[in-house]
Write a structure and sequence with these properties.
Keywords: Transport. Helix content is 73%, strand content 0%. It is mainly alpha-helical and 105 residues long. It has one domain. Helix 5 packs across helix 6 and helix 7 runs antiparallel to helix 8. The longest helix is centred in the middle third of the chain and has 17 residues.
């Protein structure tokens, strides 16, 4: 989560570990969902395909593992942001945006 605060998103083991998400998903609630809001901001501001793909993946995992993740992400208007990325030129961005949008609907 530190990487989100620093603005550097990259793939690492914790992103794909179910144990990470089970143990840390409620941390996303801290500071009025600051981490989640930063991920959403990244979707609007980043031009780096890797960062966009990781941000979309993280959103999809939050939706999957948080008991009210879908509602929270919907309230934060994430669907519109993710939908814009579904036609991105990078296939990883498109794939992860599609996964996240399924969780947002």
């Amino acid at each position: 989560m530190q990487e989100v605060l620093l603005g550097h998103l990259d793939w690492n083991l914790m992103h794909t570990e179910a144990n990470f998400w089970h143990g840390n998903v409620t941390s996303f609630e801290e500071n009025d969902f600051q981490i989640l809001k930063l991920l959403l901001t990244k979707l609007d501001t980043s031009s780096d395909p890797r960062s966009l793909a990781v941000a979309c993946f993280n959103l999809s995992q939050f939706i999957q593992y948080h008991t009210t993740g879908r509602v929270i992400v919907t309230d934060l208007k994430a669907k519109e942001r993710v939908m814009k990325l579904m036609n991105h030129e990078n296939t990883q961005v498109t794939k992860n945006a599609t996964c996240a949008s399924r969780g947002c609907s």
